[in-house]
Design brief:
The chain folds into two domains: about 130 residues, no CATH class; about 325 residues, Porin. The chain is about 5% helix and about 50% strand. The chain is built from three helices and 23 strands. A 16-stranded antiparallel beta barrel has the order 4-6-7-8-9-10-11-13-14-15-16-19-20-21-22-23. Strands 17-18 form a two-stranded antiparallel sheet. The radius of gyration is 25 Å and the shape is globular.
């Protein structure tokens, strides 16, 4: 992990040095963009329209760039010419942008979106022959104040509310949600391939950790990203990193196939995914959870310009191996139904219902618990969420989310096990300038235990977000 951090830091330092070097040159604004190679104009067309545009670095082995760069900056082998900077409003080749199956597209431009990948058509883009890479990311600084005890100080995990704990308050400042991403796309034999890698620092010791790492071409995606069981478009627009207690926000390795059916607005996806089984064995019985099969997930999604509706299903075999004995297995299943709709150009509503047996781990809750002195069974789970996001004007937005999640209980469970949790979030976010956001959010949650005890917590969070263009 330390080696990864060093490599990432070295790469970012090199990028910063190039930007500084290029920007420092005195290039008259009247100089036209660098000429493109034969056939390249069709793939990366240039526009003479003036404007702020975006910073673009163009690699072109055939371009005559003597008027832009010093001869010393050329590579010795002549394969790659020096970087040039363009600040016009050139358009990215549509072939690199449009794919009906690409993941995490920003469906509705309302409110805050911390779940989707950065837009590929804006910002810092490095171009090569038939290829381009978008460097994205953000710096997010969170200032948190808890009015009540809660053991999760960096995100609002209501299942961590300590019931019966002495009163205390807590202040916490961190920037662990800051991210860096690399979205690379290229054409091979007229076929578009995409590789996306993203990481943040939300880990022990603020070490860089993997969030997404996948490749996709056409209908096929392989790698780690949001589970097919989730719906990013229906994720709540919260400043809090945890989000709704029922919203499925798990990222895991998978192989997924997506295909249009019936019409261009309806897609069907099927995936084989990594699995994680959480069991609380009966008291006095030791052993290890086992994963005899991967998770098999399907989803059916309908979307148009103002709405998206999705139903996803999950099936898997889970297991537990008592010490010195054979593995005991069971079949787990679940459904997740979500919907998002624009009711005006500035207002969207979203909702979710999730239920099943043995799927608690998709919300970091137990999948199974004791049902007898020497026996355990899958726990039924039911959760729901409603929310509304509204843009008051071009620079102010708000979000309101309420959610509940409950697990069936048994007489053999520990009285301190979670029975039900709730989550409420309301915020106001101001964007004083492009790519800068300042927000304040009120959070409230409750927790009920199997034994009948309950507790609640109030939190106030202020966040400063700086998006990489």
């Amino acid at each position: 992990m330390q080696l990864i951090s060093i490599n990432i830091g070295t790469f970012l330092f090199a990028i910063a040095a190039v930007v500084t070097s290029v920007a420092a040159r005195d290039i008259p604004s009247s100089i036209p963009p660098a000429p493109a190679a034969q056939g390249e104009a069709d793939r990366f067309p240039d526009s003479e329209t003036e404007g702020p545009g975006r910073v673009r670095f163009i690699f072109d082995e055939n371009a005559d760039l003597d008027s832009y760069e010093s001869p010393e900056s050329r590579s010795e082998n002549g394969i790659v010419t020096p970087l040039t900077m363009s600040t016009g409003s050139e358009e990215v080749n549509p072939e690199l942008l449009a794919n009906p199956y690409f993941t995490d597209a920003r469906k509705f431009n309302v409110g805050l979106d911390l779940y989707s990948a950065p837009s590929f058509s804006d910002g810092l883009i490095i171009f090569g022959k038939d290829a381009a890479m978008k460097i994205g990311g953000l710096v997010k600084a969170d200032f948190i104040y808890d009015f009540d005890p809660i053991d999760s100080t960096d995100s609002f995990v209501t299942s961590s509310i300590p019931i019966g704990a002495p009163h205390r308050t807590n202040a916490r400042f961190h920037a662990r949600q800051s991210r860096m991403s690399f979205d690379t796309r290229w054409l091979t034999n007229d076929r578009l391939i995409r590789v996306y890698v993203e990481g943040d620092f939300f880990s022990d010791g603020n070490r860089f950790r993997l969030r997404h790492a996948f490749g996709e071409s056409g209908s096929l995606l392989v790698g780690q990203t949001w589970t097919t069981f989730a719906d990013v478009a229906a994720a709540p627009a919260t400043l809090d990193f945890e989000g709704s207690v029922s919203s499925v926000n798990r990222r895991q390795a998978q192989a997924r196939w997506t295909q249009n059916i019936f019409n261009e607005n309806t897609t069907f996806a099927v995936s084989v995914e990594d699995t994680n089984f959480i069991i609380e064995p009966p008291m006095g019985i030791t052993g290890e959870p086992r994963n005899p099969s991967p998770d098999f997930v399907t989803r059916l999604r309908y979307e148009n310009d103002c709405a998206q509706y999705q139903i996803a299903g999950l099936y898997r075999v889970v297991g537990f191996q008592p010490t010195g004995q054979s593995v005991v297995t069971a079949f787990a299943w679940g459904f997740n139904m979500t919907g998002v709709r624009l009711i005006t150009e500035r207002t969207k509503v979203y909702s979710q219902i999730v239920f099943g047996e043995g799927i608690g781990s998709y919300r970091s809750l137990p999948d199974a618990a004791p049902t007898a002195a020497n026996q355990a069974g899958l726990l039924p789970m039911f959760g729901w969420m409603v929310g509304l996001t509204h843009d008051w004007n071009d620079s102010l937005s708000s979000n309101f989310t309420y959610a509940e999640n409950s697990l069936d209980t048994t007489a053999f469970q520990s009285p301190t096990d979670v029975k039900q949790i709730t989550y409420l979030a309301a915020n106001l976010i101001w964007s004083p300038m492009n790519n800068v956001k300042i927000g304040v959010e009120y959070l409230y949650g409750t927790k009920d235990n199997v034994g009948g005890d309950s507790g609640d917590a109030h939190r106030l969070q202020t966040s400063f977000i700086f998006d990489l263009p």
